[in-house]
Design goal:
Radius of gyration of chain A: 16 Å
Shape of chain A: elongated
Number of helices of chain B: 11
Oligomer: heterodimer
Order of helices and strands of chain B: HHHHHHHHHHH
Radius of gyration of chain B: 22 Å
Distance between the termini of chain A: 51 Å
Shape of chain B: globular
Largest interface: A-B, 7 and 8 residues
Number of helices of chain A: 3
Number of strands of chain B: 0
Number of domains of chain A: 1
Largest sheet of chain B: none
Helix content of chain B: over 70%
Chain lengths: 98, 307
Protein backbone atom coordinates (compact mmCIF):
# COMPACT_ATOMS: atom_id res chain seq x y z
CA UNK A 1 0.00 0.00 0.00
CA UNK A 2 2.73 2.47 1.00
CA UNK A 3 4.62 1.43 -2.12
CA UNK A 4 1.63 2.33 -4.30
CA UNK A 5 1.15 5.72 -2.62
CA UNK A 6 4.89 6.35 -2.79
CA UNK A 7 5.03 5.56 -6.50
CA UNK A 8 2.06 7.83 -7.20
CA UNK A 9 3.75 10.66 -5.30
CA UNK A 10 7.06 10.18 -7.15
CA UNK A 11 5.26 10.14 -10.51
CA UNK A 12 3.36 13.30 -9.55
CA UNK A 13 6.72 14.86 -8.69
CA UNK A 14 8.09 13.90 -12.11
CA UNK A 15 5.06 15.62 -13.70
CA UNK A 16 6.00 18.83 -11.86
CA UNK A 17 9.57 18.53 -13.11
CA UNK A 18 8.37 18.15 -16.69
CA UNK A 19 6.08 21.18 -16.28
CA UNK A 20 8.99 23.20 -14.88
CA UNK A 21 11.25 22.20 -17.77
CA UNK A 22 8.61 23.12 -20.35
CA UNK A 23 8.21 26.46 -18.58
CA UNK A 24 11.98 27.02 -18.67
CA UNK A 25 12.03 26.37 -22.40
CA UNK A 26 8.82 28.15 -23.39
CA UNK A 27 8.45 31.19 -21.09
CA UNK A 28 9.38 34.57 -22.62
CA UNK A 29 11.95 36.09 -20.22
CA UNK A 30 14.35 35.41 -17.36
CA UNK A 31 11.92 36.25 -14.55
CA UNK A 32 9.12 33.99 -15.73
CA UNK A 33 11.61 31.20 -16.47
CA UNK A 34 13.05 31.48 -12.94
CA UNK A 35 9.50 31.34 -11.62
CA UNK A 36 8.81 28.15 -13.58
CA UNK A 37 12.01 26.33 -12.74
CA UNK A 38 12.12 27.13 -9.01
CA UNK A 39 8.44 26.81 -8.08
CA UNK A 40 7.68 23.72 -10.14
CA UNK A 41 10.95 21.91 -9.37
CA UNK A 42 10.73 22.62 -5.64
CA UNK A 43 7.22 21.15 -5.47
CA UNK A 44 8.31 18.27 -7.70
CA UNK A 45 11.32 17.49 -5.51
CA UNK A 46 9.09 17.69 -2.42
CA UNK A 47 6.69 15.13 -3.87
CA UNK A 48 9.58 12.85 -4.87
CA UNK A 49 11.15 13.21 -1.40
CA UNK A 50 7.87 12.43 0.39
CA UNK A 51 7.20 9.56 -2.01
CA UNK A 52 10.60 8.04 -1.26
CA UNK A 53 10.38 8.81 2.46
CA UNK A 54 7.14 6.86 3.04
CA UNK A 55 8.63 3.84 1.26
CA UNK A 56 11.70 3.52 3.48
CA UNK A 57 11.79 1.08 6.36
CA UNK A 58 13.93 3.38 8.41
CA UNK A 59 12.80 6.66 9.99
CA UNK A 60 16.34 8.06 9.70
CA UNK A 61 16.36 7.71 5.92
CA UNK A 62 12.94 9.34 5.67
CA UNK A 63 14.18 12.32 7.72
CA UNK A 64 17.25 12.58 5.46
CA UNK A 65 15.05 12.78 2.34
CA UNK A 66 13.00 15.59 3.88
CA UNK A 67 16.15 17.45 5.00
CA UNK A 68 17.52 17.26 1.43
CA UNK A 69 14.29 18.82 0.19
CA UNK A 70 14.43 21.65 2.74
CA UNK A 71 18.08 22.39 1.87
CA UNK A 72 17.28 22.52 -1.85
CA UNK A 73 14.35 24.86 -1.04
CA UNK A 74 16.79 27.24 0.68
CA UNK A 75 19.41 27.02 -2.05
CA UNK A 76 17.03 27.57 -4.95
CA UNK A 77 15.14 30.39 -3.21
CA UNK A 78 18.39 32.26 -2.53
CA UNK A 79 19.82 31.48 -5.97
CA UNK A 80 16.75 32.62 -7.89
CA UNK A 81 16.44 35.81 -5.81
CA UNK A 82 20.09 36.63 -6.50
CA UNK A 83 19.71 36.02 -10.23
CA UNK A 84 16.51 38.03 -10.47
CA UNK A 85 17.76 41.00 -8.42
CA UNK A 86 21.04 41.16 -10.36
CA UNK A 87 19.15 41.04 -13.66
CA UNK A 88 16.76 43.77 -12.48
CA UNK A 89 19.65 45.99 -11.33
CA UNK A 90 21.28 45.63 -14.71
CA UNK A 91 18.13 46.93 -16.33
CA UNK A 92 16.61 43.81 -17.83
CA UNK A 93 12.92 44.72 -18.08
CA UNK A 94 10.34 42.14 -17.02
CA UNK A 95 8.30 40.86 -19.93
CA UNK A 96 4.80 42.26 -20.46
CA UNK A 97 2.12 41.50 -22.99
CA UNK A 98 2.58 44.66 -25.03
CA UNK B 1 18.86 -6.68 -17.85
CA UNK B 2 16.54 -3.67 -17.91
CA UNK B 3 18.61 -2.08 -15.16
CA UNK B 4 21.80 -2.58 -17.19
CA UNK B 5 20.20 -0.98 -20.23
CA UNK B 6 19.04 2.02 -18.19
CA UNK B 7 22.54 2.50 -16.80
CA UNK B 8 24.06 2.13 -20.27
CA UNK B 9 21.68 4.78 -21.58
CA UNK B 10 22.55 7.05 -18.64
CA UNK B 11 26.29 6.59 -19.22
CA UNK B 12 26.03 7.34 -22.94
CA UNK B 13 24.00 10.50 -22.29
CA UNK B 14 26.45 11.55 -19.56
CA UNK B 15 29.54 11.04 -21.74
CA UNK B 16 27.94 12.85 -24.67
CA UNK B 17 26.99 15.68 -22.30
CA UNK B 18 30.55 15.90 -20.96
CA UNK B 19 32.03 16.09 -24.46
CA UNK B 20 29.43 18.64 -25.54
CA UNK B 21 30.04 20.83 -22.45
CA UNK B 22 33.81 20.64 -22.94
CA UNK B 23 33.45 21.62 -26.60
CA UNK B 24 31.11 24.53 -25.81
CA UNK B 25 33.40 25.68 -23.00
CA UNK B 26 36.46 25.80 -25.26
CA UNK B 27 34.80 27.36 -28.29
CA UNK B 28 32.61 30.02 -26.69
CA UNK B 29 33.92 33.58 -26.99
CA UNK B 30 31.96 34.75 -23.94
CA UNK B 31 34.18 34.30 -20.88
CA UNK B 32 31.28 34.32 -18.41
CA UNK B 33 29.58 31.60 -20.43
CA UNK B 34 32.83 29.61 -20.42
CA UNK B 35 32.99 29.78 -16.60
CA UNK B 36 29.36 28.68 -16.22
CA UNK B 37 30.02 25.80 -18.63
CA UNK B 38 33.16 24.89 -16.64
CA UNK B 39 31.11 24.65 -13.42
CA UNK B 40 28.46 22.51 -15.17
CA UNK B 41 31.23 20.32 -16.58
CA UNK B 42 32.65 19.80 -13.07
CA UNK B 43 29.25 18.83 -11.65
CA UNK B 44 28.62 16.33 -14.46
CA UNK B 45 32.19 15.05 -14.02
CA UNK B 46 31.55 14.34 -10.35
CA UNK B 47 28.50 12.29 -11.41
CA UNK B 48 30.83 10.38 -13.72
CA UNK B 49 33.16 9.66 -10.79
CA UNK B 50 30.17 8.34 -8.81
CA UNK B 51 29.39 6.00 -11.73
CA UNK B 52 33.03 4.83 -11.62
CA UNK B 53 32.58 3.97 -7.91
CA UNK B 54 34.98 6.69 -6.76
CA UNK B 55 32.91 8.78 -4.33
CA UNK B 56 36.06 10.33 -2.82
CA UNK B 57 37.10 11.81 -6.14
CA UNK B 58 33.49 12.79 -6.85
CA UNK B 59 33.34 14.78 -3.60
CA UNK B 60 36.66 16.47 -4.34
CA UNK B 61 35.60 17.25 -7.91
CA UNK B 62 32.26 18.75 -6.84
CA UNK B 63 33.65 20.83 -3.96
CA UNK B 64 37.13 21.81 -5.20
CA UNK B 65 37.07 21.30 -8.96
CA UNK B 66 33.66 22.74 -9.62
CA UNK B 67 32.73 24.82 -6.56
CA UNK B 68 35.83 26.62 -5.31
CA UNK B 69 37.57 26.80 -8.71
CA UNK B 70 34.35 28.12 -10.26
CA UNK B 71 34.14 30.80 -7.56
CA UNK B 72 37.80 31.70 -8.19
CA UNK B 73 37.13 32.02 -11.93
CA UNK B 74 34.07 34.21 -11.32
CA UNK B 75 35.99 36.41 -8.87
CA UNK B 76 38.79 36.83 -11.43
CA UNK B 77 36.30 37.59 -14.18
CA UNK B 78 34.67 40.28 -12.02
CA UNK B 79 38.02 42.06 -11.63
CA UNK B 80 39.17 41.74 -15.23
CA UNK B 81 38.94 44.43 -17.85
CA UNK B 82 36.54 43.42 -20.61
CA UNK B 83 38.36 41.76 -23.51
CA UNK B 84 36.82 43.09 -26.73
CA UNK B 85 39.19 41.28 -29.07
CA UNK B 86 38.95 37.96 -27.32
CA UNK B 87 38.07 35.86 -30.35
CA UNK B 88 40.97 37.32 -32.33
CA UNK B 89 43.15 35.47 -29.88
CA UNK B 90 42.24 32.16 -31.50
CA UNK B 91 42.79 33.02 -35.11
CA UNK B 92 42.12 30.64 -37.97
CA UNK B 93 45.88 30.13 -38.41
CA UNK B 94 46.47 28.71 -34.94
CA UNK B 95 43.37 26.50 -35.01
CA UNK B 96 45.08 23.83 -37.15
CA UNK B 97 48.06 23.62 -34.81
CA UNK B 98 45.82 23.35 -31.74
CA UNK B 99 43.75 20.58 -33.32
CA UNK B 100 46.89 18.70 -34.38
CA UNK B 101 48.46 18.92 -30.89
CA UNK B 102 45.22 17.84 -29.19
CA UNK B 103 44.89 14.87 -31.56
CA UNK B 104 48.47 13.83 -30.82
CA UNK B 105 47.92 13.99 -27.05
CA UNK B 106 44.63 12.09 -27.34
CA UNK B 107 46.23 9.37 -29.46
CA UNK B 108 49.22 9.01 -27.12
CA UNK B 109 46.94 8.74 -24.07
CA UNK B 110 44.70 6.17 -25.81
CA UNK B 111 47.76 4.15 -26.84
CA UNK B 112 49.02 4.15 -23.23
CA UNK B 113 45.57 3.15 -21.97
CA UNK B 114 45.25 0.24 -24.38
CA UNK B 115 48.83 -0.96 -23.94
CA UNK B 116 48.30 -1.55 -20.20
CA UNK B 117 48.00 -5.33 -19.80
CA UNK B 118 44.68 -6.70 -18.50
CA UNK B 119 44.36 -7.76 -14.89
CA UNK B 120 47.02 -5.38 -13.65
CA UNK B 121 46.17 -4.67 -10.04
CA UNK B 122 48.88 -2.17 -9.09
CA UNK B 123 49.49 -1.93 -5.37
CA UNK B 124 45.83 -2.58 -4.55
CA UNK B 125 46.36 -5.95 -2.83
CA UNK B 126 49.27 -4.71 -0.69
CA UNK B 127 47.42 -1.55 0.28
CA UNK B 128 44.21 -3.38 1.23
CA UNK B 129 46.08 -6.05 3.19
CA UNK B 130 47.80 -3.46 5.39
CA UNK B 131 44.59 -1.46 5.86
CA UNK B 132 43.91 -2.92 9.36
CA UNK B 133 47.27 -1.51 10.58
CA UNK B 134 46.70 1.94 9.11
CA UNK B 135 44.48 3.22 11.95
CA UNK B 136 41.60 4.15 9.62
CA UNK B 137 39.11 1.99 7.74
CA UNK B 138 38.78 4.13 4.60
CA UNK B 139 41.38 2.97 2.04
CA UNK B 140 41.68 6.45 0.49
CA UNK B 141 42.45 8.12 3.83
CA UNK B 142 44.89 5.31 4.66
CA UNK B 143 46.83 5.98 1.45
CA UNK B 144 46.69 9.79 1.81
CA UNK B 145 47.65 10.08 5.48
CA UNK B 146 49.56 6.89 6.24
CA UNK B 147 51.05 4.96 3.31
CA UNK B 148 51.80 8.09 1.29
CA UNK B 149 51.66 10.71 4.07
CA UNK B 150 54.77 12.33 2.60
CA UNK B 151 52.84 13.37 -0.54
CA UNK B 152 50.04 14.92 1.49
CA UNK B 153 52.52 16.86 3.62
CA UNK B 154 54.07 18.31 0.45
CA UNK B 155 50.60 19.09 -0.96
CA UNK B 156 49.80 21.14 2.14
CA UNK B 157 53.05 23.04 1.72
CA UNK B 158 52.18 23.68 -1.96
CA UNK B 159 48.82 25.14 -0.88
CA UNK B 160 50.51 27.31 1.75
CA UNK B 161 53.02 28.54 -0.85
CA UNK B 162 50.15 29.42 -3.18
CA UNK B 163 48.45 31.49 -0.46
CA UNK B 164 51.72 33.26 0.42
CA UNK B 165 52.29 33.93 -3.29
CA UNK B 166 48.86 35.52 -3.65
CA UNK B 167 49.44 37.69 -0.56
CA UNK B 168 52.85 38.72 -1.87
CA UNK B 169 51.28 40.01 -5.09
CA UNK B 170 49.33 42.76 -3.38
CA UNK B 171 46.51 43.75 -1.09
CA UNK B 172 42.94 42.54 -1.22
CA UNK B 173 41.00 44.45 -3.87
CA UNK B 174 38.36 46.92 -2.66
CA UNK B 175 34.86 45.52 -2.46
CA UNK B 176 32.38 46.91 -5.02
CA UNK B 177 30.37 49.99 -4.08
CA UNK B 178 26.93 48.46 -4.56
CA UNK B 179 25.53 46.91 -1.41
CA UNK B 180 24.80 43.19 -1.58
CA UNK B 181 21.07 42.39 -1.37
CA UNK B 182 19.59 42.08 2.11
CA UNK B 183 18.50 38.46 1.76
CA UNK B 184 22.12 37.43 1.24
CA UNK B 185 22.71 38.29 4.92
CA UNK B 186 19.77 36.12 5.88
CA UNK B 187 21.17 33.33 3.72
CA UNK B 188 24.59 33.67 5.35
CA UNK B 189 23.10 33.55 8.85
CA UNK B 190 21.08 30.45 8.05
CA UNK B 191 23.52 28.55 5.86
CA UNK B 192 26.88 29.04 7.60
CA UNK B 193 26.02 26.97 10.71
CA UNK B 194 24.71 24.20 8.42
CA UNK B 195 27.80 24.35 6.22
CA UNK B 196 29.96 24.17 9.35
CA UNK B 197 28.19 20.99 10.46
CA UNK B 198 28.52 19.38 7.02
CA UNK B 199 32.21 20.29 6.77
CA UNK B 200 33.01 18.92 10.24
CA UNK B 201 31.05 15.78 9.41
CA UNK B 202 33.10 15.30 6.22
CA UNK B 203 36.32 15.70 8.23
CA UNK B 204 35.19 13.24 10.91
CA UNK B 205 33.76 10.61 8.54
CA UNK B 206 37.00 10.65 6.49
CA UNK B 207 38.47 7.88 8.64
CA UNK B 208 35.86 5.34 7.62
CA UNK B 209 33.95 6.64 4.58
CA UNK B 210 34.57 9.04 1.67
CA UNK B 211 35.46 12.47 3.01
CA UNK B 212 38.41 14.04 4.75
CA UNK B 213 40.34 17.25 5.22
CA UNK B 214 40.34 18.38 1.59
CA UNK B 215 36.63 17.90 0.95
CA UNK B 216 35.64 19.27 4.36
CA UNK B 217 37.98 22.23 3.96
CA UNK B 218 36.54 23.07 0.55
CA UNK B 219 32.99 22.98 1.93
CA UNK B 220 33.93 25.23 4.86
CA UNK B 221 35.74 27.58 2.48
CA UNK B 222 32.42 27.93 0.65
CA UNK B 223 30.99 29.35 3.90
CA UNK B 224 33.85 31.87 3.99
CA UNK B 225 33.24 32.85 0.36
CA UNK B 226 29.53 33.36 1.12
CA UNK B 227 30.53 35.54 4.07
CA UNK B 228 32.74 37.69 1.82
CA UNK B 229 30.12 37.86 -0.94
CA UNK B 230 27.61 39.21 1.56
CA UNK B 231 30.00 42.14 2.01
CA UNK B 232 31.12 41.10 5.49
CA UNK B 233 34.72 41.43 6.63
CA UNK B 234 36.83 38.57 7.90
CA UNK B 235 37.94 40.52 10.98
CA UNK B 236 34.36 40.30 12.24
CA UNK B 237 35.01 36.60 12.87
CA UNK B 238 38.26 36.86 14.78
CA UNK B 239 41.39 38.98 15.00
CA UNK B 240 43.22 39.09 11.69
CA UNK B 241 46.47 38.00 13.36
CA UNK B 242 44.87 34.64 14.11
CA UNK B 243 44.22 34.10 10.40
CA UNK B 244 47.97 33.85 9.83
CA UNK B 245 48.25 31.25 12.57
CA UNK B 246 45.31 29.25 11.19
CA UNK B 247 46.85 29.42 7.71
CA UNK B 248 50.01 27.61 8.80
CA UNK B 249 48.68 25.36 11.56
CA UNK B 250 48.11 22.36 9.27
CA UNK B 251 51.59 22.21 7.73
CA UNK B 252 53.12 22.94 11.16
CA UNK B 253 51.28 20.10 12.94
CA UNK B 254 52.10 17.74 10.09
CA UNK B 255 55.81 18.65 9.98
CA UNK B 256 56.11 18.47 13.78
CA UNK B 257 54.60 14.96 13.71
CA UNK B 258 57.03 14.00 10.95
CA UNK B 259 60.00 15.33 12.95
CA UNK B 260 58.92 13.70 16.23
CA UNK B 261 58.44 10.32 14.56
CA UNK B 262 61.71 10.75 12.67
CA UNK B 263 63.55 11.17 15.96
CA UNK B 264 61.67 8.53 17.98
CA UNK B 265 61.10 5.85 15.32
CA UNK B 266 64.03 6.64 13.03
CA UNK B 267 61.62 6.85 10.10
CA UNK B 268 59.67 9.76 8.62
CA UNK B 269 55.90 9.63 9.23
CA UNK B 270 55.85 6.12 10.69
CA UNK B 271 53.18 6.45 13.34
CA UNK B 272 53.24 4.53 16.64
CA UNK B 273 51.08 1.44 16.02
CA UNK B 274 48.77 1.91 19.03
CA UNK B 275 47.65 5.50 18.57
CA UNK B 276 47.87 5.82 14.80
CA UNK B 277 44.16 6.69 14.39
CA UNK B 278 44.36 9.67 16.75
CA UNK B 279 47.50 11.03 15.06
CA UNK B 280 45.82 10.87 11.67
CA UNK B 281 42.74 12.67 13.02
CA UNK B 282 44.94 15.39 14.56
CA UNK B 283 46.82 15.93 11.29
CA UNK B 284 43.57 15.95 9.32
CA UNK B 285 42.02 18.51 11.68
CA UNK B 286 45.00 20.83 11.25
CA UNK B 287 44.99 20.33 7.47
CA UNK B 288 41.22 21.01 7.41
CA UNK B 289 41.67 24.41 9.09
CA UNK B 290 44.59 25.44 6.89
CA UNK B 291 42.96 24.29 3.65
CA UNK B 292 39.86 26.32 4.52
CA UNK B 293 41.85 29.49 5.19
CA UNK B 294 44.04 28.96 2.11
CA UNK B 295 41.04 28.67 -0.20
CA UNK B 296 39.41 31.77 1.33
CA UNK B 297 42.72 33.64 0.94
CA UNK B 298 42.90 32.62 -2.72
CA UNK B 299 39.34 33.86 -3.26
CA UNK B 300 40.20 37.26 -1.73
CA UNK B 301 42.94 37.55 -4.33
CA UNK B 302 45.39 39.43 -2.14
CA UNK B 303 46.58 40.09 1.38
CA UNK B 304 43.62 41.12 3.55
CA UNK B 305 43.80 44.77 4.61
CA UNK B 306 44.87 45.49 8.22
CA UNK B 307 46.79 42.23 8.42
Amino acid sequence: MTELIGTILVLAGVAFFIAGTIGLLRFPDLYTRLHAITKADNSGLGLVAIGLAIQTDHLFKAVVYIIIWILVLFASAIGSHLLASQAYQRGIEPWSKN
Amino acid sequence: MVEKLIFLFFDVVMCAGLLWLAWRMLTTTDLFMAVVLFISFGLLMSLAWIRLNAPDVALAEASLGSGVTGALFLATLGRMQPLPAFHDFFSQKTNGVVVLLSLMITMTLSWILFSVPDGLDGLRTEALSSLPDSGVSSPVTAVLLNFRGYDTLLELVVLLTAAIGVWALGNELPTPESKPPQFLFIAVRMLIPLIFIVASYLLWIGSSKPGGAFQGGAVLAAAGILWLLAGLKLNRLCKLLYWRILLVIGPIIFSCMALIFLISNKSLLTYPAKSVGSWILLIEAGAFVSITITLIALFMGGKPNNL
